[in-house]
């Protein structure tokens, strides 16, 4: 089977010849792993099953001051400490200014200029268009997280207006991306913390659910698979997300979700992508711990398909390089 065939079999809950996998790195972890292998090009032979395309224009990010990066929405991120994402350090909309705020142009052809070539060259790879910070996250980066939570309680009309404009932008991106020969779209929207939903189920259903369903159904109508990346303990939403059209959930954090119980309860209806512990095993476990965990996930969660093996998030800086290598060894040796 090709990697693409393995992913599709897994998404359709059929047993592939081996469990597909996809390993991502933060910048510090990538450097440490390259040093460990003595090979700056080690990633070329990883065997990742999926390739990702951005939905942003090439110049979507620019450094406006030392370690301050501005995204396509005008949101500024302080990367003086966190070099991968950063911390929001400005506010771009308020209830008074939302009507005058100019969203980025989803029709900009530069967003999609690389898609035709990527599709032509994907070979046996499963190709995913990634729409990060897709709804709740986009809203709080623009307005402020605390402000958004307060507005959910005291100014729901503003929250609706902000989310509706974000949704319209997203749906235009879905239309353009899915017009190409991609296999899936991944939406990024962190709703969880270690012990549950950030905004609670009531507000998630009030503000997020119907808009998520609109995005997922737009993808499904164009014959593509739907992925969501949502950190934290959000498994209470799995039934509703499945009903909305979700095919695959990521990052599937074993620190907050019982991955084997989730497989038992939802494995015939939902696929999982992640599961290898980035908070415990990769940074603090032994090489044998890593090997055992990866094998158990492949044999348990990967049974009858429904699983794309992966660290539960981009490998963090504190992961031991020998543990990263042990994980790669088990995944490649299937």
General description of the model:
With 334 residues, the chain is α/β, with parallel strands linked by helices. It has a single domain, classed as Alpha-Beta Barrel (TIM Barrel). It is built from 12 helices and 13 strands. The chain has a 7-stranded parallel sheet with strand order 1-6-7-10-11-12-13. It has a 4-stranded antiparallel sheet with strand order 2-3-4-5, with no helix packed on it. The protein has a two-stranded antiparallel sheet with strand order 8-9. Strand 11, helix 9 and strand 12 form a beta-alpha-beta unit. Helix 6 packs parallel to helix 7. The chain is globular.
Distance between the termini: 13 Å
Q: What is the name of the CATH class?
A: Alpha Beta
**Low-confidence runs (pLDDT<50, min 5 residues)?**
none
Largest sheet: 7 strands, parallel
**Structural class of the helices, strands and pairings?**
alpha/beta
Question: What is the strand and helix layout of this fold?
Answer:
Layout: H1 3-11, H2 27-37, E1 50-54, E2 62-65, E3 68-70, E4 76-78, E5 87-88, H3 115-121, E6 126-131, H4 136-143, H5 145-154, H6 156-178, E7 184-188, E8 192-193, E9 196-197, H7 200-221, E10 225-229, H8 238-244, E11 248-250, H9 259-266, E12 271-276, H10 281-284, H11 287-300, E13 307-311, H12 321-332
Parallel strand pairs: 1-6, 6-7, 7-10, 10-11, 11-12, 12-13
Antiparallel strand pairs: 2-3, 3-4, 4-5, 8-9
Helix pairs in contact: 2-12, 4-5, 6-7, 7-8, 11-12
């Amino acid at each position: 089977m090709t990697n693409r065939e393995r992913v599709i079999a897994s998404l359709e809950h059929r047993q592939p010849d081996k469990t597909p996998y996809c390993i991502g790195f933060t910048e510090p972890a990538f450097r440490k792993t390259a040093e460990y292998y003595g090979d700056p090009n080690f990633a070329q032979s990883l065997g990742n099953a999926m390739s990702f395309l951005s939905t942003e224009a090439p110049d979507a990010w620019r450094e406006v001051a030392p370690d301050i990066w501005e995204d396509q929405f005008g949101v500024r991120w302080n990367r003086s400490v966190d070099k991968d994402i950063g911390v929001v350090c400005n506010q771009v909309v308020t209830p008074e200014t939302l009507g005058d705020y100019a969203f980025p142009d989803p029709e900009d052809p530069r967003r999609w200029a690389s898609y035709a070539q990527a599709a032509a060259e994907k070979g046996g790879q499963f190709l995913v268009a990634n729409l990060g910070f897709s709804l709740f996250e986009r809203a709080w980066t623009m307005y402020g997280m605390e402000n958004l939570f307060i507005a959910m309680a005291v100014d729901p009309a503003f929250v609706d207006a902000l989310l509706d404009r974000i949704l319209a932008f997203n749906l235009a991106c879905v239309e353009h991306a899915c017009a190409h020969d991609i296999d899936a779209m991944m939406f990024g929207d962190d709703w969880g913390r270690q012990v549950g939903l950030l905004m609670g189920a009531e507000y998630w259903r009030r503000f997020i659910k119907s808009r998520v369903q609109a995005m997922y159904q737009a993808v499904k109508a164009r014959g593509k698979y739907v992925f969501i990346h949502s950190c934290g303990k959000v498994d209470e939403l799995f039934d509703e997300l499945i009903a909305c059209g979700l095919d695959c959930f990521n990052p599937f954090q074993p620190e907050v979700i019982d991955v084997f119980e989730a497989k038992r309860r939802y494995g015939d209806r939902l696929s999982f992508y992640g599961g290898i512990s980035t908070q415990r095993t990769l940074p603090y476990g032994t090489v044998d711990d890593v090997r055992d965990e990866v094998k158990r996930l492949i044999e348990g969660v990967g049974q009858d398909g429904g699983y794309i093996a992966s660290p539960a998030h981009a490998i963090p800086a504190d992961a031991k390089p020998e543990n990263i290598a042990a994980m790669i060894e088990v995944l490649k040796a299937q």
